[in-house]
Structure of Fimbrillin-like:
Amino acid sequence: MKKKSFIKRSTLPEASLCAEARSTVFRTATFRSATVFRSAAFCAAVFLLAGCGNDNESATADGNDSRIPLEVTGGISAQTRAADAAWAASDAIGIYMLKSGTTDIAESAANRRYTTAQGDGRFSADAGASIYYPIDGSKVDFLAYYPHSASGVADGKYALDLSDQRHLPAIDLMSASVSGKDKSAPGVAFNFHHLLTKLELVNTPGTGITASELEGMTVEITLQRTAASYDILFEALDVADATATLTLNTSADGKKSAAILFPNTETAVNPIVPAVNWCSR
């Protein structure tokens, strides 16, 4: 039999040399196969461990949940607001989380929308809008405003336009703040106060005007500022100087009229002008 060049010569017969060579090759192959198997098993174990970690990626090294969500309730100061007396179903507020004692946004939590579905003052975040406290337990402050606006807020400034009084809740403005919170006590109770003024009129029949003539009546107030910008982070209202005549929100029977106005400390007279439906006479 022809000798294998990779087998070293010895005193054994050539047949024995070949047998030994085959045995050596087999043992080597077996050892390598076992090594490959053990390596594959080790890799599988590593992937399994990694998978377990991903299932709980929000946990810290000590096993505590690191992502603690904000829990929100909200009341209205004296249970009054410019539009009406309490929350309504689906009312939404915007919330900012700030680094404590600053106006710097924390955890990218700016203008997150929270809604009270039942109008009971318990607010829940919209999908994907939840605010989470800092993992390291650092203190934060919160600012909130009502009504929430996605398109009307830019760089923390809320644009107001009071020229259309047909839907009062849409032009109401309230704010609230809470400071010095952290994840150890995630609940925040906002106490909202209104920043605008509500004008209400009760219209009654009088000399020359009957109840039926009040129906369809319009009421206007002159010299009213209608535009402003509210800086949410600094809680400051900047009202533009331009004035206009506003048409109040008047009931169909003409007996009640209302408007939401910017606070005014000036002493100038602002005439209120009723326009009776004389065509009904």
